Amino acid sequence: MKKNILFIFMSLFSMCLKGQTPQKFSYQAIIRNSSNSLAINQKVGILISILQFSEKGLVVYSETHTSSTDANGLLNISIGDGSVVSGDFTKIDWSKGPYFVKTETDLLGGTNYLITTVSELMSVPYALYALNSQPGIQGDKGDVGSQGPIGITGTQGPQGIKGVSSNIKLRVSFTGDTLEFEKGKFIIIPGISLTVNKPVNGYGPYISDVDGNTYKTVYIGTQHWMADNLKVTRYNDFTSLSNLTDAKQWLNSKVGSWCYLNNDTINNKLYGKLYNYVAISNKNICPQGWHIPSADEWTILIKYLGGTNIAPIKMMVVATKLWGLNIKTTNSSMFNVFPAESRQYDGSFTNIQFSNFWSSTLTDPNIPHSLKFLRVNFNGKNTANPIPSSSILPNYSIDGLSVRCIKD
Predict the structure, then answer these.
(1) Above 50 in pLDDT, residue 383?
(2) Cα–Cα nearest to 8, from 169, 166, 122, 143
(3) Which of 66, 71, 173, 143 lies closest to 109, judged by CA?
(4) How far is 80 from 325, CA to CA, in rounded Å?
(5) All domains in the chain, ordered by first residue
(6) Rounded Cα distance, 404 and 398, in Å
(7) Would you place residue 153 in the very low, low, confident or very high pLDDT band (cuts 50, 70, 90)?
(8) Residue 313: closest CA among 328, 335, 334
(9) Is 108 helix (H, G, I), strand (E, B) or coil?
């Protein structure tokens, strides 16, 4: 059976003012299956939550919907008009934002919600906002202007030519809009869309993996990186990886595998997971639209941030206790490197305050298990003034290293 996926997500807000303010706004999504075909006339289950202040903030309201896609795979619901789970939609104070919409979807029509997305409400329907807003100070009454003359009625223009039908979709980006046409064609609205105004540096939108983990992202130069270490336990086609704690099993593993640093779950929050080469050689290890960086892509990052000795200072978190050294770091790039160490080929864990990241580049086509990776380590660990440095070196394929993904 083909698994359905939420292929295009968009939230559209429309309000109609009549005798009173309607307590709802519309939401649309296009559903496609794993073959990129529209899921036509299919029943789906939706859990909608309104979060306050952040994508993991307080749930001020939640509701469920059971609806069906139409003949074009389009799902239409009204937020505020579902079966209430918690909260009161009419009592949301839209002036005390920001607010985020969390969408959880069961593509089989039930309540087993497997797909989760969170997006910020970049604008609030005016009529809803006005319900909780306070009136400002009334200004002075202006002078009444003179009545202008009534213009003459113009002649009726000719009838326009009949238009042609087209499959047009509206994708709402984080900072603007892009009109998408059939066969991959699109038009960017100048000065608004994210493609035009992509920042050179700074945090970008959050992304999620198939396990529901969310990750910061960061723009650095011409590249768009994950700003957290990967934590996923499944490929993005939902195939599971193996969690191997035993050293011998790790050494002999021929399948994609992961482990926690020192096999301790407490390390997952800061350091993420460590993966073997089999895991990262599968193109589905990263969230869709992202991939394992090549050695060249790591080199571009290091050069942009100042080279092998300057870049680590800008990449490493400011946490002397974690690094175990009195070193000066700024993390000014917001790349957030933590000392996640590594798991060696014999299954043991290193403990010398450095961080290793996989790359997809082979050092030698005839040695497929010898890979390049980025190592952020220290020269002169026992000296009074240790200097951070980075290098790209060969590595054993059965080692366990951290993973950062880069945008396609």
Answers:
(1) no
(2) 169
(3) 66
(4) 53
(5) 4-131 (2.60.40), 169-198 (no CATH), 207-407 (no CATH)
(6) 18
(7) confident
(8) 328
(9) coil
Q: Is residue 341 helix, strand or coil?
A: strand
pLDDT at 211 > cutoff 90 = yes
* Contact indicator for 123, 13 with CB cutoff of 8 Å: yes
How confident is the model over 337-368, as pLDDT tens digits? Answer: 887 778 887 888 876 667 788 888 776 655 54
In the beta sheet, which residues pair with residue 59? 51
Q: How far is CA 121 from CA 13, 50, 174, 378, in A?
A: 10, 9, 10, 43
Kindly report the number of other CB atoms within 10 A of residue 98's CB atom: 14
For the beta carbon of residue 271, count every other beta carbon within 10 angstroms: 22
CA 172/CA 174 separation, integer angstroms: 7
**Residue at token pair 């969390």:** 102
* Cα end-to-end span (Å), the chain: 29
User: What does the block give as tokens for 312?
Assistant: 């680590």
Nearest to 125 by CA among 87, 81, 103, 94: 94
CA separation (Å) from 157 to 151, 153, 160, 162, 164? 17, 12, 9, 15, 21
Position of tokens 């002169």?
380
Q: How confident is the model at residue 393 (pLDDT cuts 50, 70, 90)?
A: low
